[in-house]
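User: Hello! My lab partner asked me to get a predicted holo structure for this protein. The small molecule is flavin mononucleotide, SMILES included with the sequence. Please write out the structure tokens.
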Amino acid sequence: MKVLTIIGSAKNGNTSEIIRCFKEELKKLGEYEFEDLYLEDFKIDFCTGCHNCIFIGEDKCPHYNDVKAIEDKILVSDILILATPGYMFSVTGIMKNFLDHVAYNCHRPKYFSKKIFYISSCTKWQEKGVFIPMQTWGSAAGFSFIGKMYIDMLPLPFTEKEKMKRRKRIKKSAVSFDKSAMTIVDIKPDFGGVVIFHSFRTICKIAPKIMKADYEYFKKIKAYDKDTKWYVNAKISPIKHYLANFIEKRIEKAINKMIDKNEIDNCKGSFKNKL
Ligand SMILES: Cc1cc2nc3c(=O)[nH]c(=O)nc-3n(C[C@H](O)[C@H](O)[C@H](O)COP(=O)(O)O)c2cc1C
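Assistant: Hello! Below are the structure tokens for the protein in complex with flavin mononucleotide.
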């Protein structure tokens, strides 16, 4: 089983230590092949907000080569671990920059066959803020969630008792990870995930000339066919489907009211409204 860990902090930090311990425990449990990828080695420039990835295609991103190098590694792995310390009650800047560059996957998800796990070196007060950006991306990009672990690591020396407590928690998480890694999971999107599908298919139908890449994707997966419920075959209850369809109609109406139909055909890429 190939496990790729994408790390948003320095190589000698607490996050790296947690990952080292976690991998040590996993090696005792099963056959794992690990690769660690430090985002700092890629030095990806900040996202410029051009929207090329969403509108035209990810290959039109000015930083495409760096992003592709990372995504190619995700594509050949079975499980992705996103790991970051908590900085200012969120992910680190370098992790956020990475998530911005791969955000287009939330419009055109492609990671349905892969599982995802999240690790953070953070306090329990930060946990929510740290996991939200990563988990939002992971679920919208198509991954199956198999768990998360945060370990509170102060940048101060711990007693042996405190270290032992954390080793125990890491061991417990590794056992749970190993179980989920071996299990075949059904694709079962939550309601938010179903609504995202309905929202994006409608938005790009309203503006197909602008959202070219998204529109092509939705046509390719037959998203506008009557029987299509989601990006791929998935377990979606009739009530979720019905409600998401209802919300889609409301969104369609609201967006049609919001946008200038005369302007839309002249629009080339990201549009800046003058107020
Ligand atoms: C710039 C910066 C911001 C941080 N922000 C917070 C914070 O908001 N709350 C908190 O509890 N810890 C905060 N921390 C502490 C780190 O989350 C903690 O030391 C973590 O273990 C560092 O992991 P690392 O060594 O892998 O970078 C911050 C640390 C840094 C360097």
